[in-house]
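Service request form, structural biology core

Requester: graduate student, group of Dr. S.
Request type: structure prediction, single chain
Budget code: on file
Notes: please return the result as structure tokens.

Sequence provided:
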Amino acid sequence: MAVVTALPPTVAPSDEQLLARHAAGDPTALGELFVRHRDTAYRVARRLLGNEADALDAVQEGFIKVLSHLDGFARRSSFKTWLLRVVSNAALDLGRQRARRETLSLNAAALPEADVLAAEPLATRQAEQSDLRRLLNEALAQLPEAQRRTFVLHVDAELSYREVAEVLGISIGTVMSRLFYARQKLKGLLGPRIET
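Core staff response, request fulfilled:
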């Protein structure tokens, strides 16, 4: 009977290890960091901006800034929190620039009514989910910028209170306060529209 030995599980390198590999000349290390954090960065930018095209632009701009300023990364926070700070700042800058077009399009995820009526019954669930996303985006757009940014970093980026505080350069108490008021306002805005 042959004895099968299990291979030890492979452990992904930490962000710090990837940064050290990059500093040592490994050209693949930055790619690994990008792949690791791109989805979270996109979710944050998407929530802050409300549409896919702007979010992708903000993520690209954020990553370019990070790469061009990598030597200045002081490591006072984790790479992830630093990256999300840069991406969220890029998103807010882009949002301000594009706000001059009148308003940001926060309804990009909604399906047109004609498409919903023409779709198969299976698509009804997708339309309902799209409607909920649209309602949430509209409600988030009504939050003050500081509350919206704090909420998005905590909920969409899944950062802890401490990490949100690091990204925004505020105290944990301020994070908690902003989240409390954001949730209260969202509950007030969404409660009557969802409870049918």
